[in-house]
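Exercise (ungraded).
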Amino acid sequence: MITIKNKKNGPGLKRAVEEISGVDISVCFQCKKCSSGCPVAKLTRSRPSEIMRQLHLGAGNELLESDLVWMCASCETCSARCPMGIDVAAVIDALRKLALARGASKQKGNVPLFNRAFLKTVETFGRSYEIGMIAAYKLGTGKLMNDTEKFPAMLKKGKIALLPPRGGDRKTVRRIFKIVKQNKGAKA
Amino acid sequence: MRYAYYPGCSAESTARDMHQSTLVVARALGIDLVEPKGWTCCGATAGHQTDRLLAVSLPAANLTKVQDMKLDMMVNCAACYSRMKVANHEIMAHSGIRKGVREALDRDYDGSVKVRHLLEVLLEDVGLPAITRAVKRSLNGLKVACYYGCLLVRPPKILKFDDPENPTSLDRLVTAMGGQSLEWPCKVECCGGGLSLSRTDVVVELTGSIIDMAASVGADCIAVSCPMCQVNLDLRQQDINKQTGKNYQIPIVYITQLLGLCLGIGPGELGFNKLMVPATNVLKKVNERA
């Protein structure tokens, strides 16, 4: 069942999501193809079609706590199969951006922390640097021992580079990050 | 045939074997690959989950480098491929984005660089007849489950790669090499992609059902063309086994590794030693020792 807590959490998110994603939420007619094809829907409490409906009915910030927001794997099956051509994955991306901007609570696994760690290495070296990213992520989550048993084999096979990447055009990448930070929230 | 080859960040770490095998296979088939100098990260999933301008500008920085080379871009990583093509599309469709990118890069870019996936280059430019002629060793009926994952085929309206629900590019190559490509329903299912470290539980669940299906159709190996799919399916098999009590040992090989073997290149040069689940059965089929 879909419940909407009207006006308890500020104005609805619909307009903000539409602005960020460029999607017209109201054209969804609830065929649920997105939810049927979603690989993580069997693991989440919320499903893509429900998120679409909740947005349409005026749901507010409580939607940013939905587990799907950070469990979505960005596989884009929902967008590919929508008969109305709605880019559902872009709606989820928009919810992520709003969740970050509005300080929604941290969820299990902490995908935002992972994304920050990943992008920080890109900003620094021009290319992603796994060891740097993994270290920053693990320090952030406090789960230092997860997966460590796999490191020796991966290092031995040359599947993880010890040294940071060289040769990337760091200057251009740093400029991009600088402008993006300045323009935060710029619309298409 | 000459292309600007964008290797992507994984080529320097988890997908060294993909990179290595791409280079030797290209050389053997007369494909000339030139790396754009100073190429940088495409932003991957983290980029588009964070900011739209960032998600377009990072690929665009590489596309402009390729534009200066006056070549088409060739990409092997499915995730980079998808990001490059989406960036081109965004720049062409939205003047506001193009303006933002101009500011971020300090130069204008019109979104016109042609982006090709290695599979498109192999099937459309080299062509199956030429590949069949170049094949020196057969896969001898090796049963291969071809796995495309998400970002080779999605978003379909922008990528226009093969059939988005039932692609056959990998299957056609496997058949041309004398392998048996299997019918199975997981070709475009998701492996969990970038959630590998942040939500390992989700990745183990998703890769578990893919490996399960591959095993039940009798696959000797799974052929991939995406470093994220490879690492998730390969590395997580021990987690799947630990969690389910099964003992899956299905090698996850890059299509370029299989093709390289058939072109007569040794497994060492193709990075077979880098696979977590050893591909001993695959090498045995083509009479190669590990």
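Further reading is listed at the end of the chapter. For now, observe: Chain A has two domains: 14-101, 111-182. Chain A has a mean pLDDT of 91.
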